TrEMBL record:
Gene3D superfamilies: 3.30.590.20. It comes from the Bacteria. The lineage of its organism: Bacteria, Bacillati, Actinomycetota, Actinomycetes, Pseudonocardiales. The keyword Ligase applies. It catalyses: L-cysteine + L-glutamate + ATP = gamma-L-glutamyl-L-cysteine + ADP + phosphate + H(+). GO terms for molecular function: ligase activity, forming carbon-nitrogen bonds. InterPro entries: GCL_type2/YbdK_subfam, GCS2, Gln_synth/guanido_kin_cat_dom, UCP012666. Keywords: Ligase. This is Glutamate--cysteine ligase. The keyword Flavoprotein does not apply.
Length: 502
């Protein structure tokens, strides 16, 4: 979806030609996987973080374009909402202390963004869902004016044929809060609710013959990632899931009518339905199940490019893939004229702090390596349905929902992490060549978070509950919580050390 789109209308022939071109790209990729050389050098990682801008009254600030212009750097880009920014850091390897340096770079980049935001009367919020959003903010006029977002809005609403409905029932298995969770039901005439989701996306370049193992392992880990990284418990004033961003994104991008859902048509935000044996399995599912949203076809032919010794761009396949939001997405790309494959992990929310985000990333990368190189693949003893159930349970309940794990049965996420997964993550980081002190620093953050059972989501919930107990109504409590959140987030103290009002 980062590709530019300069069209506004499409004919039936456009759609027919685009479908044929996507299939031709898929055939070319199948040939490449057998005969072409892909990048196999030191695996590279990438990081993207989506951000919010808030005014001094803590409401969303539609100043994104102005802030971008004043920064004047290509590392930041526009995002779907006018109050959103996206930071894309250059790829880097894992070994040594690269990710310690990434923490410092990320702090510097966010400091630059904060300084530019202040020039426009705004502040930076690194959080999964901005808790002060109201329904009046989520309108078509709030979308960024970029042509690709305008086209995406038009095409998704046209495909759905009716307003986008959010229907999310809250849950609180912890029993820590006296007030019952809320139930949010609301209709929208644009895809603006999607802009309420701000995430951290992790990339890992992998060889083609290892892609299936890395993707399967990432699917196994999605529930654990959410449980320890949840940071989005509020939406439109309602207390909902620990990671409400998951159902919000699923529903705000759902172009199916209720009848199509009842028929079993796949959603465009998708966990998937089976373990895979090749990256082709995922791209084939894309072409089989999902019609084009933006059928923009180029004139180039991938087989002609192959014959000329050029790595084909596979533009149509990539554009189509960008309109199917898997939580672990396959990526085909070219760097320096050489094609490569990446797993893009889209599970985690942004925030709460830079050190928390780096800890979440290295916990994931370490476990991923360990699961891929295990004598017996975890997915051989875990059903795909169990992995998906873990994902949903963790999104609902965070650390309070038991997950299924082979060899342990049903176990609370913090216990699973402390007993089993942290040592495995440390071993995996050692396999990557990450220095011992770097691994200790960031895995220590995950350890303390689990020992104290304090995630971004639980801190938000407990802080709002404490402020409401003092007599604040929900809007005032959310503003009070966000004020404290912004201060602690900028200070880069890990969330497990954040105080809760007494």
């Amino acid at each position: 979806m980062g590709q530019d789109v300069d069209r506004t209308t499409f004919s039936r022939r456009d759609r027919q030609n685009y479908r044929a071109k996507v299939h031709r790209c898929l055939d070319a990729l199948a040939v490449m996987l057998k005969e072409h050389t892909f990048a196999r050098d030191e695996p590279m990682t990438g990081l993207e973080v989506e951000l919010n801008l808030v005014a001094h009254d803590l409401e969303p600030s539609p100043s994104g374009a102005a802030v971008l212009e004043s920064m004047g750097t290509s590392d930041f880009q526009s995002e779907l909402g006018r109050w959103n920014l996206e930071l894309n850091l250059p790829p880097r390897p894992l070994p040594g202390d690269h990710w310690r340096r990434l923490e410092r770079q990320l702090l510097d980049e966010l400091a630059t963004a904060r300084s530019s935001a202040l020039e426009h009367g705004a502040r930076l919020a690194v959080i999964g869902i901005l808790p002060t959003l109201e329904k009046r903010h989520l309108v078509a006029e709030a979308l960024s004016p970029d042509s690709r977002y305008t086209m995406l809005n038009e095409q998704m609403l046209s495909a759905r044929g009716e307003p986008i409905r959010l229907d999310i029932a809250g849950d609180d298995p912890s029993g820590r809060h006296d007030v019952a969770p809320d139930h949010l039901v609301a209709d929208f005439d644009s895809i603006a609710p999607e802009a309420a989701c701000t995430s951290m996306q992790l990339h890992l370049q992998v060889p083609p013959d290892s892609f299936a193992a890395y993707w399967n392992a990432a699917q196994c880990l999605a529930g654990v990632q959410l449980a320890v990284g949840a940071n989005s418990p509020f939406l439109l004033g309602s207390r909902l899931w620990a990671e409400t961003r998951i159902p919000l994104f699923e529903q705000s991008c759902d172009v199916r009518t209720p009848e199509l859902r009842n028929q079993g048509v796949r959603p465009r935000v998708w966990f998937g339905e089976r373990w895979i044996t090749s990256v082709l399995d995922l791209f084939t599912e894309n072409t089989r199940y999902f019609p084009a949203l933006m059928p923009v076809a180029q004139d180039n032919d991938p087989f002609a490019e192959l014959a000329a010794g050029i790595a084909p761009g596979l533009d149509e396949l990539r554009l189509h893939n960008g309109t199917i939001w898997r939580w672990n997405r396959p990526v085909y790309d070219i760097a320096g004229g050489v094609p490569h494959l990446r797993v893009e992990n889209r599970v985690l929310p942004a925030g709460p702090t830079v050190v928390d985000m780096v800890a979440n990333a290295l916990f994931f990368y370490g476990l991923l390596r360990e699961l891929v190189e295990a004598d017996r693949p975890l997915w051989s003893s875990m059903s795909f349905e169990a992995a998906e159930e873990n994902f949903t349970t963790a999104a609902r309940h965070g650390l309070d929902g038991p997950l299924y794990w082979p060899g342990n049965g049903w176990i609370r996420p913090d216990e699973l992490v402390l007993r089993k997964l942290l040592p495995q993550a440390a071993d995996g980081l050692a396999r990557w060549g990450v220095s011992a002190d770097v691994a200790e620093r960031y895995l220590g953050v995950i350890e303390r978070r689990c020992v104290q059972r304090r995630t971004g989501a639980s801190w938000q919930l407990d802080t709002v509950a404490a402020l409401e107990a003092r007599g604040a109504d929900r809007p005032a409590a959310l503003r009070g919580m966000l004020t404290r959140y912004l201060e602690s987030s900028a200070a880069n103290e890990p969330v497990h050390d954040w105080p809760v009002p007494g």
